[in-house]
Amino acid sequence: MDKALVIDVGKCTGCRQCELACSYEHTGTFNPARSRITVFDFHEKARFVPYTCTQCDQAWCQQVCPVGAISNENGVKVVDAATCVGCKVCTIACPFGTVNYEPASGKVIKCDLCGGDPACARACPTEAIVFADVAVQGFEKMRAWAEKTDTAPQASA
Amino acid sequence: MAWARKILRVNLTEGTCKSEPLNMEWAMQYLGQRGLATKYFVEEVDPKVDPLSPENKLIMTTGPLTGTNASTAARYSVVTKGPLTNCIACSNSGGYFGAELKNAGWDMIIFEGRADKPVYLVINDDEAELHDASELWGKSVWHADDWIKEKHQEPMFQIAAIGVPGEAGVLFSAVVNNKHRAAGRSGVGTVMGSKNLKAVAVRGTRGIKVHDQEAFDKAVAGAKAVIAGNAVTHEALPAYGTQVLMNIINELGALPTRNARDVQFEGANDISGEAMHEPRRSDGKPNLARNAGCFGCTIACGRISQIDPAHFSVKDKPQYHHASGGVEYENAWALGADTGVNDLEALTYCNYRCNEHAIDPITTGATIASAMELYKIGALTDAETGGVKMEFGSAEALVAAVDAICEGTDFGKLLGLGSKRLCEKFGHPDLSMSVKGQEFPAYDPRGIQGMGLTYATSNRGACHLRSYTVASEVLGIPEKTDPLVTDGKAGLVKIFQDLTAFVDSSGLCIFTTFAWSAEDIAPQIDAACEGDWSVENLMTVGERIWNLERKFNMDAGMTAEDDTLPKRILKEAAKTGPAKGLVNGLDKMLPEYYELRGWTPDGKPTEETLSRLGIS
Ligand code: SF4
Ligand code: SF4
Questions:
Q1: Three-state helix/strand/coil letters over B253-315
Q2: For A121, B294, B460, B576, which has the most beta carbons within 10 A of its beta carbon?
Q3: Mean pLDDT, residues B301-309
Q4: Residue B384 and residue B468 in one domain
Q5: Domain holding B362: CATH number?
Q6: Distance B112 CA to ligand 1 centre (A)
Q7: Residue B391 lies in a domain
Q8: What is the distance in angstroms between the Cα of A13 and the nearest Cα belonging to chain B?
Q9: Domain containing B489 — which CATH number?
Q10: Residue A97 Cα, ligand 1 centroid: separation in angstroms?
């Protein structure tokens, strides 16, 4: 089963535990500035939005990389830091801004799903991020809307 | 580790920013944040200092856990001598500012002197620089936040700032970070304003490590599970915030109403946490838009509200039609029950204004309540209020009064004195519901006896956050005590004071203690920091902090006579509810408390107590 990060914006409280977990997993320190997931605070709209790479099937970043530093490992687009030359072309190509240059390492960084057990999803206290079957990502949303449909019996011709 | 081991000293008179190593010997005795900053403060500042003179200092300080992934590790404190109280002041805030400061590599910032013109401080990791704030002077916190991010092209800045009242000397000005998180009490923002310091903007990217990572992971995971399994921290606080208390405290007959003339408010339910969820008649939307967490918080008690755009307070003011920080319990009480106003939208508007302009909503509401009583008895008239009819229960009067403080009108300047000075000025000092110059919050000591001792002995003037015996007396945490009796409260207050003092020094939020005992907290600190941080040692650290603060206050001129309560609480019995007929029995608790503290009968820490705790 292919799995993906399923994000439910309505549940996010803006606590940054996901950023803490991500940076700890990848750098060994608590450092949201180096997290591969970023939580945006749209304060005036009362909305927090956790945002990260969605692992495109045909990934722009992978396609443009001139040195082949980005590979596809079971659907996950992974940057090989040893190969990356820090040219940043992928950051231009990615339409979503989720691959970024990291000054501290001189390489680009992006979500690699932690090798199959994403730390952010484990850390999230509200289940705003869960790691779930990619084929039924919309399941909970569908269920919620399905429940709202009018249950009154329809007249038959 | 955990500590950044570095402090930033900003001399505003000279315009210099210098780095110096953290005094680790003191860190081992005082942990961090509240305790450690207080130690620095008392070492460096004359207790008799005029709080608004350049000789006073102001410290912004994190704890060793701040910025880690421990639940609620967001906190930072502002320590100074408070102009409202003339005592040590220590106000604590969440949001994202504290963690960012720590991640920039600083345990604390010590501000000294006074800039000759308005400035703001920008910190980018190791670099710290003062900038000209003349374009920001006279502007709100919200404006300053947007302006600084724009100017420096740094959307990731976390910013703490003061508003116009802080510049103008309103004695209960706060420091607000992230637009709606406040280091609220005792006038810490007034001190910042007196130094011509408008704001601090921080970006931190260095990363934080702890001493024993493996033990820390284990302790943090275990403690998070305790929060997730607790009904208060996992259900009540996320759903209702601290506002869950409004109806509970009202039913107990401990909700100070109309300047504490009454102890129950007939409009309590209208301004409660439950009411914030109810669809409004006007637009069908609830007042509450969602809950929110501070950095690292797995409780998320924060309220984000959206005012009804048709409400009179914001009708022609689209700048307030967006979502922002909603009322917490203390704010809803002060702006609402204490003024007799049951209009939730009006309270929300006033709460926005308190955040926008960084004033303490507790003192704001309680001062307005005292003005309403002065008006009622004819001591304050339309001549002074500028025509505002300061009647209890009037939402229009409340809104006009809060606007007056934010805008600095003549009436606003009068209110800006706080209730003690206001009531003295108009000949009725007893109508100020304050201790040591600071107004008490949302728990009437006639209905919750332990809170009387809490207010009377709090080192920063009346305050619930120094020993929240409500936990025990009302909620049964850690065990239930009878709120109507004084027996055993001296010991309870002492334990809560010491526990709170060390929690406030760690970087964690005191609300965790609804779920966590000291046994849940100590292992997290012990793993993060080198040294011995057993429960026993941490309680001693708390006691040390408490006595250091007390000693500073005594040296500043405070005496046992200041450990008292407003006459109304001691002499006028509660008229309704379970506490009907009761006053607060402070005289039964105070001598025992002094004794348990190892203080003389006139409230001075004995030489023996001070030397046992290593305080010279
Ligand atoms: S970084 Fe951008 S382009 Fe690359 S896989 Fe993720 S979303 Fe697609
Ligand atoms: S951990 Fe979950 S609730 Fe917290 S900020 Fe991330 S997505 Fe939001």
A1: CCCCECCCCECCCCCHHHHCHHHHHCECCCCCCECEEEEECCCCCCCCCEEEEECCCCCCCCC
A2: B294
A3: 96
A4: no
A5: 1.10.569.10
A6: 48
A7: yes
A8: 4
A9: 1.10.599.10
A10: 8
Is the Cβ of A48 closer than 8 Å to some Cβ of chain B? Answer: yes
Q: Please give the Cα distance from B220 to B226 (Å, whole number).
A: 10
Please name which ligand lies nearest the alpha carbon of B298: 2
Number of Cβ within a 10 Å radius of residue B103: 30
Whether residues B510 and B578 fall in one domain = yes
| Integer Cα distance of B163 and B199 in angstroms | 9
Question: Distance from B296 to chain A by nearest Cα, in Å?
Answer: 5
pLDDT of A2 above 70: yes
Run of H or E residues at B18: strand B16-21
* Domain presence at residue B231: no
Domain containing residue B333:
262-432
B369 in Cβ contact with B397 (< 8 Å): no
Question: How far apart are the C-alpha atoms of B407 and B397, rounded to whole Å?
Answer: 15
Whether B424 and B502 share a structural domain: no
In the predicted structure, residue A155 carries a pLDDT above the cut 90: no
> What letter would DSSP give residue B445?
T
Indicate whether B572 and B502 sit together in one domain. Answer: yes
B115: left (phi over 0), alpha (psi -120 to 50) or beta: beta
**Total domains, chain B:** 3
Q: What is the mean pLDDT of residues A92-104?
A: 94
Can you list the domains of chain A with their CATH numbers? Answer: 1-52+123-141 (no CATH), 55-110 (3.30.70.20)
Q: Ligand 1: residues within 6 Å at CB?
A: A 53-56, 59-61, 77, 94, 96, 98-99, 110
Residues B545 and B567 in one domain: yes
pLDDT surpassing 90 at residue A36? yes
Residue ending a domain, among B185, B203, B221, is B203
Tens-place pLDDT, residues B383-441: 999 999 999 999 999 999 999 999 999 999 999 999 999 999 999 999 999 999 999 99
Complex ipTM > 0.90: yes
Domain boundary among B157, B180, B203: B203
- Within 10 angstroms of residue A147's Cβ, the number of other Cβ atoms is 8
Say which CATH number the domain at B149 has: 3.60.9.10
Q: Which residues contact B264 (CB under 8 A, 6 or more apart)?
A: B250, B251, B253, B255, B257, B576, B577
Tell me if chain A has a CB within 8 Å of the CB of B103: yes
Q: How far is CA B518 from CA A54, B34, B471, B538, in A?
A: 42, 17, 14, 9
Amino acid at B506: S
Q: Would you tell me which residues 164-203 of chain B have a C-beta closer than 8 angstroms to some C-beta of chain A?
A: 178-180, 203
Residue to mutate among A19, A30, A42, A45, with most B CBs inside 10 A, is A30
CB B438 within 8 A of CB B431: no
pLDDT at residue number B498: 98
Angle of helix B449-457 relative to helix B489-503, nearest 10 degrees, comes to 50
DSSP B574: P
The verdict on residue B175 lying in a domain is: yes
| Pair (B104, B171) in one structural domain | yes
Q: Is B545 among the domain residues?
A: yes
Residues sharing a CB contact under 8 Å with residue B435, sequence separation 6 or more, in sequence order: B455, B456, B458, B461, B462, B562, B564, B565, B566
Does B422 lie in the same domain as B306?
A: yes
Shared-domain flag, residues B462 and B412: no
3-state secondary structure of B79: strand
